Amino acid sequence: MHRTAVYPGTFDPLTLGHFDLLRRSAALFDRVIVVVAGVSHKATGMFDLKTRMLMIKESVAEAGMQNIEVDSLDCLLVDYCRSKKVGVIVRGLRVYSDFEYEFQMALTNRKLESAVETLFMMPNENYSYVTASTVREISRYGGDTSAFVPKAVQRQIEDYRRGHAARDLKAGGGVANTGAFDR
Question: Residue 90 carries which DSSP code?
Fold first, then answer.
């Protein structure tokens, strides 16, 4: 039986935690479709859809992962799953607060489409604290993000920094709205 899973998210940017779940999902399923949300409502977002998709494609190619596809998402996730005949959604859980949100979404998706299951996975403990918001915050203050993202993503972050004035980058914000981890 051919098993396909969908791994959805904004991936702004793709972190090593995301990549860990993607790598492990690729070992469990014949095909994994990474679906990147076309619209991100995060005020602190860095990258447009095209760039986010490119970062994922480059990261997957550099890792030699053959069973990964990247697509955009501009509809309800369960509608996407129906259209692609996908029965599994992969979601990551880092901390308990993730579970509360993800549990609610999984139950909602089940109500909308009972044939679609949600598989919760925890990232490797080395990446359990890494979030895209944290990476964006570190980047905006000129910090080194290379320990948190794949190499292809790091290259895009460096390009982003070169393309934005220092004053724009240091506007910061995002992690608990405190800026620069000053709590």
Answer: E
Q: Residue 15 falls within a domain, yes or no?
A: yes
CATH of the domain at 49: 3.40.50.620
Distance of alpha carbon 69 from alpha carbon 72, whole angstroms = 10
3 state SS of 70 = strand
Q: Is the dihedral of CA 61, 40, 95, 28 positive or negative?
A: negative
Number of compact structural domains in the chain? 1
For 120-132, write each residue's pLDDT tens digit: 999 899 988 889 9
| Joined tokens for residue 133 | 């918001």
- pLDDT at position 160, please? 92
- Residue 129 in domain: yes
- Specify the pLDDT at position 177: 47
Residue 174 resides in a domain: no
pLDDT in tens, 20-50: 999 999 999 999 999 999 876 667 789 999 9
Token pair, residue 54, equals 């490119």
Longest dimension (CA), the chain: 54
Q: Which domain holds residue 34?
A: 4-169
The pLDDT of 97-101, averaged and rounded, is: 84
177 belongs to a structural domain: no
